[in-house]
């Protein structure tokens, strides 16, 4: 007897959070009553500036306070995921990390700040998800995360016909009265289109047949989805 397996069609909250953190170009840090806008994050990304660890009594090398205990300063790190394509409502997700640090945060420092993590929260269209540190640490960054923006810009500017062909896989009810369709996201598991109507919009997820493990596999997977779209069009014509 063959056991049925469920194919993964999208990233887990931990995977998505890891990818957002890894490719972030900027972040907002709120600590000790001050708000810091940190820009131009280099190849080490946000996790090169912030080191997360589980709660413990030993928080670091800050100066001891009354009673010999190291003072703990609340900190909040905010990162946003903005759609590369000019879709309506471009905010795709928000990541918020809260915790404690041993000393006031210095935005200009090149060293990593040690943060005792309290909560890691992902907010998107699906709601709010709390991600445990263990899951965040073991999650893999999506192989397309670093080049997603370039891919979506290329698809929007140079291959709008492909987006039109992909629409054949959408529910016909969603394409009625359609004003515009643009690629919203692409990851190892599939591509998402945003369908914009006069006053509303809907997102359509088109999963790849096989999850991508290397960037150079994306062309083959998109071709497979286009083939499925072509078959769907033929089935509609013959119905």
Protein architecture, described:
The chain is of the alpha+beta class. The chain folds into 2 domains: 13-138, no CATH class; 148-238, Split barrel-like, CATH 3.20.180. Helices cover 27% and strands 31% of the residues. The chain has 7 helices and 10 strands. The strands form 2 sheets. Strands 1, 2, 3, 4, 5, 6 and 7 form a 7-stranded mixed beta sheet that branches. Strands 8-9-10 form a 3-stranded antiparallel beta sheet. Strand 6 and strand 7 form a beta hairpin. Mean pLDDT is 87; it is low at 1-5.
Can you give keywords for this protein?
239 residues, alpha+beta, Split barrel-like, 7-stranded mixed beta sheet, 3-stranded antiparallel beta sheet, 31% strand, disordered N terminus
